[in-house]
Structures are given as structure tokens and as C-alpha cells.
Amino acid sequence: MAFANVVALLCFLATSIFTVEGEVRRFPDTISFGVATASYQVEGAWNVSDKGENIWDRFTHTTDSIRDRSNGDVACDSYNQHRRDIEMLKELGVDYYRFSISWTRILPDGFSNRLSQDGIAYYNTLINDLLEANITPYVTIYHWDLPQRLQDLGGWANPMMADYYTDFAKVAFEAFGDRVKHWLTFNEPWVICYQGYGMIEKAPALDMSGIADYLCGHSLLKAHAKAYHLYDDVYRPTQNGRIGWTLNTNYHEAASQSPADREAAERAMQFELGWFGHPVFSSEGDYSQILKDRVNQKSSEQGYPRSRLPEFTSEEVAYLKGTCDFFGLNHYSTNFVRMPTMALKSSKVSFDDDLGVEKFVDPAWPGSEADWLKVVPWGFRNLLNWIRNSYNSPEIIVFENGFPDRDDKDDVDRINYYNGYMNALLDAMEDGCNVTAYTAWSLMDNFEWSDGYTQRYGLYHVDFNDPMRTRTPKASAMYYKSILETRTIERD
Ligand code: PNW
């Protein structure tokens, strides 16, 4: 065969391999799509008008805990640039936008006796402009930026927080509830308490694991239930909205099918997702027996006069049960879990010591810019099924899912992540999981907490060296847009 013919044949083979259309899968019409951000991560304008100081202002300004020594003083400047944000939402074609309210922007002192008219006006404008663009606002009432004044009183470890939080939520329902019909009380209670009260990873960095994390969780659960009941009793009858919260978890897969490893994996699920999931979504309510037994037993071995995990009264158990209109889920990654071969000696009191399992990842799993985030799409499918089986098939809304890189506009790794995870979502829906909405984290690059601006999750790139904070669509923005337009995805 002449050389030219060989080349022609090879070209033909190559193009036919690479242009063959993969199988296309369609999303049911019942699912809607959105993107998310959070106030401290995007707004900036940290001291504009009468805005009060919050714990992230204090943490970034007074410690060297942020990897690049940055802060959210300006962030994406969304306080001044929300019109550009709405243009991007329109370009993507999302059904809704999930954002959060900065507590001290509307209540400068943390308490509801003094409202900031400028703060209220900012969110009114944002909400009105979203509605005008035909984009539904989904509002997180609390995404980690606690008023510093309330932290000075102990923050979430103070049981009075349930009242102060509910006062704040009431202001939000009163001011915005005529137009906002989708509420989340809290973003990720586990991260707030485990990383903020147990560790130094996040503000207020209390570093009292095994004590402060459980106190935080306890009053946070009560705060959630109180705000839920307030909405349910007083506002729902006229405002007709829905309210829940969003819980994060890794999926914990048993390292083997041995009974011990399966027990270890289930225990990890009950400690992480179940800590906040069981009291609200299980049919019996309260903390799971496994969580109560472990912490109780450890506490007594360690010489404490009572369990470090506080107890709910039976009235409280009943008050907490069912306080979500849907199961909100934030999910990023998966790990394996095995039972330790030798009982781990309790050296230091901690949440992880109470849990008492070993976690590890498969080195073959693709990584990301965050060491905790490996790309494991099947874990997402298994997690959605775990929720379906453990909590009686609730309606599930995915409020966050996304991938961090360093800084790439041609972000093929992010596209691969979304392709894998959205395929896993469809697999789970075919298994019978009732998922009604899916949210990409995040609309744009933003202040990634302790990692500052070194890790980027955005569909839009943000130039943080540019005073205008210019936003540019990445390849993944165009990819997400095409999924939303066609409501289809290629099978991976
Ligand atoms: C979420 N984990 O945090 C937050 O809701 C966002 O504000 C944040 O930007 C995003 O995920 C990316 O980090 C998480 O360790 C932090 O499993 C840590 C974990 C999960 C979520």
C-alpha cells in the first residue's frame, strides 16, 4: 500500500474513533440546576457602611492561619458587582442561585435590636435583580461568618445561640420571605463544629476536639430546629416556602467486606453525616445509638463524670425530628475505612479518637489541588443510596459539588470531575434516589477559607490582582452551560 494511502487510512481511523458520539443520557425534567457561593467568600466590602466584624474578619486579620495570608476584605467584590454575577448566571442558564446572608451586614452587633438598612437594601437588590432575571434565589442563612460579638460569648458552644440565631433568621424571613421561597438554616454543621471548634483549621479555631465540637453541634441542632419551627408556624402559612439545611460528608466505603470493616465504615457515616442527620431524618430521632455509646464509653474510661456528648430530653428529640423539608447534601469525595487491628489507645481526647477507625485513600484515585479531595464518582452514587436506605428515601437536593485546581481556564480536570459526578448522580437516580436539584460549587473562584486564593473552584475565573475583579468563563462554564441547555450528558 502506498504511503499516502496508509496515512489516509490512519487519519480515517483516528477521526472515526475521536468523533464517535458517546452515548447520551438525559436528565429527567424534574431536576433543576444551580450554582452556589457564600457571603464571606465573595462579597468583600467587609467594613462598608455599618457592617459589624465577624469571626472570619477577625481570624484573617489577626492570625497567620491563611495559606497565602489573604482575607475576604475585597474577595470577588460581589457587594459592588452583583450585576456582573447575574449576567454570568444568565449566561450559564441556571434555574437558581444559592448565596448566603452575612449576619453582621444586616445585624451589625449580632443582635436583632439594631438593623442595618444598607445591609438589608443590598440583599433586597440582589434578590429583586435575580427574580427579574428569572433566577430563583436559594438563601443560606448561615454560612460560617458568625458575629465576633457572639463568638466572644462562646459562639455555638453557648446554648443561648439557639435564640440569637433564631432572632437573626426571623429578620431574614421578615425582610426577604415575601420573595425568597427556598431557605437553608446552616451550611455544613459538621465543618463548623469539627473544624472550627475541634481544630484550628477554621474560625474560631478553638482546638478542643471531643468537647467543644459536641457542644457546638448540640446548640446548632437546637438553633436549626427553632428556626425551622418559627418558619413552619409563623411564616410558611403566608410565605409558602421550603426550609432545610445542607450537610456535608465524604462517602466512607468499607475497605473489605469483613464484618469489622463494614462496621467501621458505618460508624464513620454515623459520626460524620449521622451526627446531624440522625436527629433530624431518622425515624427514631436523637443522636444515633452508636455515637452515644462510643462517646459515653470513651468519656467514662477517660474519667469524665458524664458523656462529653450532651443529651437531648425526649421533648427535644421530638422537637428536632423532621425539621427539614428535604435532605440537603454537600459532597466532594470518598475514602476507605477499616477497623484498626489493635485497639487504639486513647492518648488524646478527640472526635477522631471517639470514632476510632482508620481512613485511607486509593493512591490510584486522581487527586486535586486539595489533599482531601480525590476524584471518586462511584462514591457519590453509593452515598446517595446510603441516604435513601438510612433515612427512608427523602427528597435529596445536592447543594454543593465541585473540584479545586490551582488556576486554570482550560480546566479539563474540572470538566472530567463534573462529567464523572453527574453521571454518578444519574446512576443513583436510576437506582431510585429522589434527587430534585444539583448545584455546582462554585459560580466563580473565591476566598477558599484557610487556603485563601490558592485553590479555585469556579466555573468563572476571577482575576484577584485586578481591582475590577474581572470574571472570565472557563471551559467548565461552557461545559456546564451545555448540559443545562441540552439537559443531557455523555456517558463516561
Ligand atoms: C465546603 N471536607 O466546605 C464549603 O461549604 C464551601 O464554602 C467551600 O468553599 C467548599 O466546600 C470547598 O472547600 C468543605 O473536609 C470543607 O470534607 C471541607 C470539607 C467539605 C466541605
Explain what you see.
It is a single chain. A hairpin with an 8-residue loop joins β13 and β14 (471-473). This protein has a single domain (3-487), classed as TIM Barrel. Helices cover 44% and strands 14% of the residues. Mean pLDDT is 96; it is low at 6-20. With 492 residues, the chain is α/β, with parallel strands linked by helices. α8 packs parallel to α10 (212-239), α15 (377-390) packs parallel to α16 and α16 packs parallel to α17. The strands form four sheets. It has an eight-stranded parallel barrel with strand order 2-3-4-5-6-8-11-12, surrounded by five helices. The structure holds 4-nitrophenyl beta-D-glucopyranoside. 4-nitrophenyl beta-D-glucopyranoside (PNW) binds at residues 38, 41, 187-188, 191, 248, 250, 330, 332, 372, 400, 441, 448, 457.
What attributes characterize this protein structure?
three-stranded mixed sheet; globular; eight-stranded parallel beta barrel; alpha/beta; TIM Barrel; 17 helices; binds 4-nitrophenyl beta-D-glucopyranoside; 492 residues; 15 strands
- Tell me the overall shape: globular
CATH homologous superfamily classification? Glycosidases
Number of helices: 17
Q: Order of strands in the sheet with the most strands?
A: 2-3-4-5-6-8-11-12
Domain tally: 1
Question: Beta fraction of the residues?
Answer: 5-15%
Q: Low-confidence parts, pLDDT < 50 over ≥5 residues?
A: 6-20
Report, as a whole number of angstroms, the end-to-end distance. Answer: 37 Å
Main sheet overview: 8 strands, parallel, barrel
Mean pLDDT score: 96
- The CATH class, by name, is Alpha Beta
What structural category characterises the helix and strand content? Answer: alpha/beta
